[in-house]
Design goal:
- The N and C termini lie far apart (71 Å).
- The protein contains 17 helices and 20 strands.
- By secondary structure, it is an alpha+beta fold.
- The strands form 6 sheets. Strands 12, 13, 14, 15, 18, 19 and 20 form a 7-stranded mixed beta sheet that branches. A 5-stranded mixed beta sheet has the order 3-2-1-5-6, with helices on one face. It has a two-stranded antiparallel ribbon with strand order 4-9.
C-alpha cells in the first residue's frame, strides 16, 4: 500500500540516507602578501579538481589566475564576517556551515582540508601568512560598528554633517573646560579592549547624583580624557578606590574646600604605561599622568553630576580638579613604596587615591643632616590647613631625590622619617588653641594642657618623586572633613588586571 506521506517504511535505510552536499571553498587573500602570491596557482588547482571556490581579495586581484571566481572585498565586509585574521585563509563549507579552515600555507593542512593528496606539491611545505587588512590597527572597531553589533548601550547623539564634535561636547556640558576627544563608537570599542571586564558591569554609584556607572561609561569618559586603552584598568581601579565610603567622594566633590582626587600609582604598571615619577612628576607633559586623573574627574562630572557652580561648591577650587595623577619613584631598593607600606604585596601594581589640595612647595637648600631637614620640613607641614589646626587634615609629603638622599645617606627610611616628622610636629596645646597669639582660629581650649600632634598617627603619608636636581619637596594637604578623624581617608587598591 502506498504511503500517505513521510518516509517509505519499505525503503532500506541506506537508500534513505541523504547525500551530503558537495564541499565548497572560500579563500581570502591580498596582493600585499608573498604567501598569497605563492598559493595563487594552488587555488587554480582546487578549481581544476572540480570544486567550487570563491576568492575574496582585499586590495588587488591582478595576481590571481583568470580561472578563479573573485570578489572585491576592499571594504572588508566579507573578511569581517568570516573572522579573518591571517591571509591566505582557506575555508571549507558544507551547505552553509564551516567545516574547517587553514591559515597561511601548510601543505598537509590544505591537502587534508580539500582531500587533494598532491595539492601544491611543487611548493615548499610551509610558509606563514600575513595579517589580514581587517585586523590592521583601528580597523576592527570600524568594521564592528559598520557591519556588526557593538554592544554599546549608551545613548547615541547624532550630529549634523556641519557640526563640530568638539564644540558639541562643549555645548552639552561634557567638558571640564578643556577640549575632549569625541567618544565615537569606534573609540569606545577600542577603549573597552583595554579591560577584560564586562562593559555592562556596574562599577558603582557616582556621587553626588548616585548614578550607576558601568565599565562602558568609564570607558566613554576615558576616551574623552584622552586615555589609551591600556590605561583603563588604572582608571577603573582608581574609581573603585574613590567610591570606597571611607574616601567620602560625595563630601570631597560637594565641599567648599579645594580638594579633588589625587591618584598615586605604584608597581610595574607605572613603568609599563610610561608614567612620570621623575622630573615634573606633578606637572604637565605625560599622557598617562594627565589623562588617568582627568578620566576620573570626568566620570564624577558627567556620570555623577559633580559640576562646578552646581553641586560642586568649591570656594576657589584647584587645578587638580582637571587632573592630579603621578607615579611614585621606586628606583631605590631600600625604599618601601607607598602601596606596599599600605598593605599591597611587593611587586604588585596599585593606586592610592587621596583627597588633596594643590602643591605647597618646600625649599630647604641648607640642611645636610636628617635632623635639620626633619625640623625644616615639619615647619612647613605645620601650615597645612592652618598652623593652629591640628588633627584636622591629612597630608602627603612628596620627597624629592635630593632631600631623600640626606635621609638615605644616614640610613633613614620611611618609618623613621615619618616617626621623626610626627614627633617634630607635636606642639604644646597653649600655642595652638583658639585666641593664642591673637589669632582667633585654633583648637578648643580643652587641649591647652596637652601636647597636640599636627596629624593623626596615620595622617601623614610619604611618597618619593621628582627630578634629580633641586633641594625642594612638596606638600599635598588633604580635605578638612572634620576634627574627629571623620575626614576622607586615603584608599589603596591593587590593580587586578
Amino acid at each position: 500500500m502506498a504511503s500517505s506521506g513521510g518516509i517509505d517504511p519499505t525503503c532500506p535505510p541506506a537508500a534513505r540516507t541523504a547525500t551530503p552536499p558537495p564541499p565548497r571553498f572560500v579563500a581570502v587573500v591580498k596582493d600585499d602578501c608573498e604567501t598569497c602570491h605563492l598559493v595563487a596557482p594552488v587555488l587554480g588547482q582546487i578549481v581544476a579538481a572540480g570544486y567550487s571556490l570563491k576568492v575574496y581579495w582585499q586590495d588587488d586581484d591582478a595576481f590571481l589566475p583568470a580561472s578563479l571566481a573573485t570578489v572585491d572585498d576592499r571594504d572588508l565586509e566579507h573578511s569581517f564576517r568570516l573572522d579573518i585574521v591571517t591571509v591566505p585563509t582557506l575555508i571549507r563549507l558544507e551547505g552553509q556551515r564551516e567545516r574547517g579552515r587553514t591559515e597561511g600555507w601548510d601543505a598537509a593542512s590544505w591537502r587534508t582540508l580539500t582531500g587533494l593528496a598532491t595539492l601544491g606539491e611543487e611548493l615548499p611545505s610551509h610558509r606563514p601568512g600575513c595579517g589580514s587588512r581587517s585586523v590592521d590597527p583601528g580597523v576592527p572597531e570600524v568594521l564592528r560598528v559598520r557591519y556588526g553589533e557593538t554592544g554599546i548601550r549608551a545613548r547615541e547623539v547624532v550630529l549634523g554633517d556641519r557640526v563640530d564634535p568638539t564644540e558639541a561636547c562643549y555645548d552639552r556640558g561634557w567638558t571640564d573646560g578643556l577640549p575632549v576627544v569625541p567618544p565615537t563608537p569606534e573609540r569606545i570599542l577600542r577603549m573597552l579592549a583595554g579591560t577584560r571586564r564586562d562593559p555592562h558591569e556596574i562599577v558603582g554609584r557616582i556621587p553626588p547624583d548616585m548614578a550607576p556607572c558601568t565599565v562602558e561609561k568609564v570607558a566613554i569618559n576615558a576616551v574623552m580624557a584622552g586615555c589609551k586603552p591600556e590605561y583603563l584598568p588604572v582608571v577603573l581601579t582608581a574609581l573603585q578606590a574613590a567610591l570606597d565610603p571611607r574616601f567620602t567622594l560625595h563630601g570631597v566633590t560637594c565641599s567648599t574646600c579645594f580638594s579633588s582626587p589625587v591618584v598615586i600609582v605604584n608597581g610595574p604598571v607605572a613603568k609599563r604605561l610610561g608614567m612620570n615619577s621623575g622630573m615634573n612628576a606633578l606637572g604637565q607633559g605625560n599622557r598617562a599622568n594627565a589623562t588617568i586623573g582627568r578620566a576620573l574627574n570626568l566620570v564624577v562630572r558627567n556620570v555623577g553630576g559633580g559640576r562646578p557652580g552646581e553641586i560642586d561648591r568649591a570656594t576657589l577650587g584647584t587645578p587638580g580638579k582637571y587632573t592630579f595623577c603621578f607615579a611614585e619613584d621606586e628606583s631605590d631598593d631600600g625604599w618601601t613604596p607607598l602601596a606596599e607600606a599600605r598593605g599591597i604585596a611587593p611587586g604588585s601594581s596599585a593606586v592610592t587615591v587621596f583627597a588633596g589640595d594643590g602643591v605647597q612647595g618646600v625649599w630647604d637648600q641648607k640642611a645636610r643632616t636628617p635632623a635639620e631637614l626633619t625640623r625644616s620640613l615639619a615647619m612647613a607641614l605645620s601650615a597645612v590647613g592652618h598652623p593652629k589646626l591640628c588633627e584636622w587634615v591629612q597630608a602627603i609629603l612628596v620627597l624629592s631625590p635630593e632631600h631623600y638622599a640626606i635621609y638615605r645617606g644616614a640610613g633613614w627610611h620611611r618609618d623613621r622619617i615619618t616617626a621623626d616628622l610626627q614627633a617634630a610636629l607635636s606642639r604644646p596645646g597653649a600655642e595652638v588653641v583658639a585666641g593664642a597669639d591673637g589669632v582667633a582660629e585654633g583648637m578648643p581650649h580643652s587641649r591647652r594642657g596637652e601636647q597636640v600632634p599636627k596629624f593623626h598617627p596615620d595622617g601623614l603619608l610619604l611618597v618619593r618623586a621628582g627630578g634629580p636636581a633641586g633641594l625642594m619637596s612638596a606638600i599635598l594637604s588633604g580635605w578638612p572633613g572634620g576634627r574627629d578623624h571623620e575626614e576622607s581617608h586615603p584608599i589603596t587598591r591593587e590593580i587586578s588586571e
